[in-house]
Amino acid sequence: PLAPRKNRKKPHIFLPHLEKVDKSYIMVKPDGVQRGLVGEIISRFEKKGFKLTGLKLFQCPKELAEEHYKDLKSKPFFPKLIDYITSGPVVCMAWEGVGVVASARKLIGATNPLQAEPGTIRGDLAVQTGRNVVHGSDSPENGEREIALWFKEGEICEWSPAQTPWLME
Ligand code: ADP
Question: What does the entry give for GO biological process (predicted)?
Fold first, then answer.
């Protein structure tokens, strides 16, 4: 028979299904691809310990860019933003992890790269809001929405990284 719950030993294996795992859509924008920053940007999220579940180089059609940024439709910079996002290939990524949405926003830094802290992607690698090299979902809900928007079924890979028990107790 099992010992009373409070006396039971904590399992020494990490059980990720017991934690709330978020999903974030991260994208290297066309300037990041043209400037050869793809590896550097992927590396920041990979080293932090998040799990990559989707990755592709992709030429974004205008309709998709407009849908992705639909909340900004009334902004004066909207047409320029759509031209920018569709001006060349982007790298689409789906990342998973506990707290990944909020953490990725911190790793990315402020929208205006001149206000982004050194050490963040935009703080280290960009100078202008209109060329801020990377996108990251702003809420877990938008993370799910954007991954569904940018990836087709079969493009997302569920897997268990070998490092998990060395990353979380
Ligand atoms: P974030 O990407 O940091 O979540 P927003 O959702 O406010 O920022 O804006 C989406 C994107 O629109 C920005 O990353 C940037 O590429 C572009 N953008 C925002 N504000 C401006 C602006 N004033 N001028 C030009 N582009 C802008």
Answer: CTP biosynthetic process; GTP biosynthetic process; response to hydrogen peroxide; UTP biosynthetic process
